[in-house]
Amino acid sequence: MSIAEHSFLPIIQDQELKDSFSVGFMNAHTVPETALCSISYHRIFLILEGTGGIQIDGHTYPISGHEFFLLSKGQLFAFLPGSVVNGYELSFGDCFWEKSPASANNCKSVLFDNAASNQHLPMPGGENRELITLFEILYAEFTAADYINKLDALAAYLKVIMIKIANLNAALVSAYDSHEKQLYRQFMASVSEKYKHTHEVAAFAKELGISTRKLGDVCRRCSRMGPKEIINGQLIAEARRYLQFSSRPVKDIAYELNFSSPDQFSHFFKKHAGSSPNEYRANFVKIGM
């Protein structure tokens, strides 16, 4: 489905979660006609088995099983109609994450600060049983009767799961050529830090000491996306967060993200998100945001 088609789906807002935390189990769930969900909480989908696909910020990923999908607050997602999903859906807010020990903060940053680079993680056979068991325990704990310090116990399990997924991600990273992957990670870190200052591929390539063509080759081999697509994805994700979670005027957001004018920002946003900034924000006003 193209971005244009993507934009015609209705948008619904995430349901508010008690204690900003939830774990659900989808038992061979068949997805009917659906709408895009704008998420207010970070999401981890552990897909054990499945068919169909999931659409995240305009990109469609096939579902095959034994895989994770990681979504960051502010992203839009929908399962494709007719998809069949067997697995777990874990949702948590930043305020719940604060219950987890600070030592796990770097794992959350690696996985969710630039979710587009970690959106889909296959789960190797050797990791299956351990991670599945952790989700089984967390789900059983979540659905059990409340008790004193239950939230602290859930936060501790979440910390362990996050560390294990971060380690899985690191293992997948090491499977690539180490020099190219190092360049890619440096590029991603630089984009996360400097996307408000420059949007130019050439500027990032110069910082890394490589040509724009080399940077393009590295990005496509490591993520199947070009560097401009990655930069634009970061800008769109941040713009969506501003529009959804703040009341800042569009012109202020435009200058904050280093666009030369509100018109340039509006044209960019409509091209990549399928609606104008004001139309996007109005969707959330209609549903009570």
CATH homologous superfamily label of the largest domain: Regulatory protein AraC
Helix amount: 40-55%
Structural class: alpha+beta
CATH fold call of the largest domain: Jelly Rolls
* Beta-strand share of residues: 15-25%
Overall 3D form: globular
- The strands making up the biggest β-sheet line up spatially as 1-3-8-5-6
Secondary-structure map with pairings?
Layout: H1 3-7, E1 11-13, E2 21-30, E3 36-38, E4 42-51, E5 53-56, E6 59-62, E7 67-71, E8 76-79, E9 84-92, H2 94-97, H3 105-112, E10 120-122, H4 125-143, H5 150-174, H6 178-194, H7 201-208, H8 212-223, H9 227-245, H10 250-256, H11 262-273, H12 277-286
Parallel strand pairs: 1-3
Antiparallel strand pairs: 2-9, 3-8, 4-7, 4-9, 5-6, 5-8, 7-10
Helix pairs in contact: 3-5, 4-5, 6-8, 9-12, 10-11
Question: What this model shows, in words?
Answer:
- With 289 residues, the protein is α+β, with helices and mostly antiparallel strands.
- The protein folds into two domains: 3-174, Jelly Rolls, CATH 2.60.120; 178-286, Orthogonal Bundle (Arc Repressor Mutant, subunit A).
- Helices cover 51% and strands 19% of the residues.
- It has helices spanning 3-7, 94-97, 105-112, 125-143, 150-174, 178-194, 201-208, 212-223, 227-245, 250-256, 262-273, 277-286; strands spanning 11-13, 21-30, 36-38, 42-51, 53-56, 59-62, 67-71, 76-79, 84-92, 120-122.
- The strands form two sheets. It has a five-stranded mixed sheet, with no helix packed on it.
- α3 crosses α5 and α9 packs across α12 (277-286).
- The two termini are 27 Å apart.
